[in-house]
Amino acid sequence: MEEHVVVWDLETIPDLAAAARILGMVGEDEAEVRAALGPGFPKQVLHRIACIGALVAARGPMGWTISALGAPHLGERTEHDLIRDFAARIAKLRPQLVTFNGNGFDLPVLRYRALVNRVPVPGLYVRPYFNRYTEDAVDLCDVLASFQSSGRVKLDELAKSMGFPGKPGDFDGSKVEEMVAAGRIADVAAYCESDVLNTYRIWLTYEMIRGTLEPGQFQWSLAQAAEFSQRRTPPAGGEDADLDAGIADVLAAAFGSRAAE
Predict the structure, then answer these.
(1) CATH class of the domain defined by 4-255
(2) 100 near 203, Cβ under 8 Å?
(3) Which residues fall within 8 angstroms of residue 60, CB to CB, at 6 or more apart?
(4) Which of 48, 78, 110, 231 is most buried, taking the most CB atoms under 10 A from its CB?
(5) What are the tens digits of pLDDT across the range 214-244?
(6) Residue 44: pLDDT over 90
């Protein structure tokens, strides 16, 4: 059976309908519910999935080959369908899952939102993905910190420390709600893809240093990723030229300029 990996990431916005039910504010204006929810980070169950970024790669004798990369979003599908389709892909491939802070955020949010939306997700149970200490779902943030909160770093920090491009401009997850409200969900999806690309490059490096990927296979995997990235259509331009340029730089640099090292 072919060995697959899915590197993935969520971007989310507050679920104001669920918040209204929790806060006893059903029927109240959404702005009032948002104000009552407060400026802090909502509990995981209150994170509505805005997009799911995912990269699919298969292992061969030469190394890892990317076959798909995308970030379907709320501008294209309902949250129910985003969850259903992602879980169906997992069921088909039975892959190793790779995230950055997935154990702390993405996996529990995905499961909570399946509950909220009443989505059957048997694909999330074809392997013990919710077991923190297995290889079935590798959370690089968790693993590289030796499962200690004091050792954790941000994805952007780690990517840049390794010479990778990191996040585009000053864009980060805290701006997703604002971007979605402004109708810029496609830009959010492109940003999500950039996080997935950074995570993939870090994971390939991790596989190489621990000996599961030979140096030659590592270099081949990077070169294939660069070729794949060059073949892809660049993200659609948005209103923010600096953000669009920053994302384009990430997509190019993450798989381009360092691929021949």
Answers:
(1) alpha beta
(2) no
(3) none
(4) 110
(5) 999 999 999 998 888 778 655 444 433 433 4
(6) yes
